[in-house]
Amino acid sequence: MFLCCWLALVALIPTTLSINPGVKVRLTEKGLEYGRQLGMASIQQRLKTIKIPNMSGKKRVSPIGKVKYSLSNMQIVNVGLPKSAVDLVPGTGVRLSIGNAFISLRGNWKVKYLRIIKNRGSFDLNVNGLTIATSMAIKSDETGRPAVSSVNCAATVGSARIKFRGGASWLYNLFRKFIDKALRKAMQKQICPLVTRAISDLNPRLKTLNVVAKVDKYAEIEYSMVSSPTVSKSSIDLSLKGEFYNIGKHQEPPFSPAAFSLPPQINNMLYIGMSAFTINSAAFVYNKAGALSLSITDDMIPKRSPVRLNTRTFGVLIPQIAQRFPGLMMKLLVKTAKNPVMTFEPNNMTVQATGTVTAYAIQPNATLSPLFILNLETSFSARVFVSGMRLAGSVDLNRMDLTLGTSYVGEFQVKSLNNIIQVVLKLVVIPQLNVQLAKGYPLPTLGKMKLVNPQLQVLKDYMLIGTDVQFTG
């Protein structure tokens, strides 16, 4: 049933847009082999549904004259597919071949001759040397999800051995060759339609592909194809858009994905390359949605911290604050001024963020009195990891630079606030940011797909996930 699950990502909407992908996916021969193993179970179940209609007729047999015969209640009792292979056809698709298969059938027989003489019994038919060869085509449906179909199929039934039980052996031996041929012919007619149906059964499952996957209330990520898949002798390479959008509004960011190539690795079933463009498109979306801002009050600062958000603490460094706003609590608004930018270097991920810190004194009537606005330049080291079927992350502060944007309380030394703002970033802003980053965003997935022992590498301009895969249903 899952033979083509591996191909689910192959046939999203192929377009003629000459743009670079944000995400690349590579399915290796190891992955195809796993798909073959799963697919054989589906085909085997389909072949077990072969229905042989009752057969009857007359045959003149010397010296007893015409003999009426019938075969009934014929059922498949076993199907074996001991040898099969799936091959990539470069530039085309996938070919499946099955050899040395066998089918066992059981039924009843009955003959009548000389008007009054009847014989009946049961029989077993074992068909060996069954071969099946089929090619599969993959296209996109109207929703941008893949649909599979059988391009061609050929089936050959080899030798058959029938064993009758009951009745006179000399009688049914007269019909042995005839029955062998008739039953093999009846089975052969049904094999390819059943294989084709097994392939078609995949289509409802392929509709589970998350072409557009919701991340949260702000964003969704699109995994549609930007070009046709590339089929080589050893892998299928897919180029996916891999771009974040605001929910319900697909606006392109003011930057484009850079070209990148996956390394020639084959140890895992599946490789997923995520470019810096994908992460930066997320930053564009969240910044545009106003989600990259945080209002901070004193109750958000851990009690153990000596730094408090009030005019007494800040008044030690900026006396005019204590003089003009004595004994008041304060509020800080930290927000980005432009889109954060992430860069990937081997074994290193860095986020550069530019923002502002606006300080307010909270009046007894809850009115906010602005005190100053600081320009904030920060650098964060980032870590990414796979969590289930999502890519998650966390950040740590590397560097912070402050400059004065606007002061409503007169001149003061900005450097005197470095320690306070660092404490606020490390104790409040970064922990809350990491809570959100730990939720992650969906990877391209199909049905009940599970990643097995994923390993992540950070390379130049992209990260690479190498993983085996397991389908749980």
Automatic annotation (TrEMBL):
<feature type="disulfide bond">
    <location>
        <begin position="153"/>
        <end position="192"/>
    </location>
</feature>
<dbReference type="InterPro" id="IPR017942">
    <property type="entry name" value="Lipid-bd_serum_glycop_N"/>
</dbReference>
<keyword id="KW-0044">Antibiotic</keyword>
<comment type="function">
    <text>The cytotoxic action of BPI is limited to many species of Gram-negative bacteria; this specificity may be explained by a strong affinity of the very basic N-terminal half for the negatively charged lipopolysaccharides that are unique to the Gram-negative bacterial outer envelope.</text>
</comment>
<dbReference type="Pfam" id="PF02886">
    <property type="entry name" value="LBP_BPI_CETP_C"/>
</dbReference>
<dbReference type="GO" id="GO:0008289">
    <property type="term" value="F:lipid binding"/>
</dbReference>
<dbReference type="InterPro" id="IPR001124">
    <property type="entry name" value="Lipid-bd_serum_glycop_C"/>
</dbReference>
<comment type="similarity">
    <text>Belongs to the BPI/LBP/Plunc superfamily. BPI/LBP family.</text>
</comment>
<comment type="subunit">
    <text>Monomer. Homodimer; disulfide-linked.</text>
</comment>
<keyword id="KW-0391">Immunity</keyword>
<dbReference type="GO" id="GO:0005615">
    <property type="term" value="C:extracellular space"/>
</dbReference>
<keyword id="KW-0929">Antimicrobial</keyword>
<feature type="signal peptide">
    <location>
        <begin position="1"/>
        <end position="18"/>
    </location>
</feature>
<feature type="domain" description="Lipid-binding serum glycoprotein C-terminal">
    <location>
        <begin position="264"/>
        <end position="467"/>
    </location>
</feature>
<keyword id="KW-0732">Signal</keyword>
<dbReference type="InterPro" id="IPR030675">
    <property type="entry name" value="BPI/LBP"/>
</dbReference>
<keyword id="KW-0399">Innate immunity</keyword>
<dbReference type="InterPro" id="IPR017943">
    <property type="entry name" value="Bactericidal_perm-incr_a/b_dom"/>
</dbReference>
<dbReference type="GO" id="GO:0050829">
    <property type="term" value="P:defense response to Gram-negative bacterium"/>
</dbReference>
<dbReference type="GO" id="GO:0045087">
    <property type="term" value="P:innate immune response"/>
</dbReference>
<protein>
    <recommendedName>
        <fullName>Bactericidal permeability-increasing protein</fullName>
    </recommendedName>
</protein>
<dbReference type="Pfam" id="PF01273">
    <property type="entry name" value="LBP_BPI_CETP"/>
</dbReference>
<feature type="domain" description="Lipid-binding serum glycoprotein N-terminal">
    <location>
        <begin position="26"/>
        <end position="249"/>
    </location>
</feature>
<keyword id="KW-0964">Secreted</keyword>
<keyword id="KW-1015">Disulfide bond</keyword>
<dbReference type="InterPro" id="IPR032942">
    <property type="entry name" value="BPI/LBP/Plunc"/>
</dbReference>
<keyword id="KW-0325">Glycoprotein</keyword>
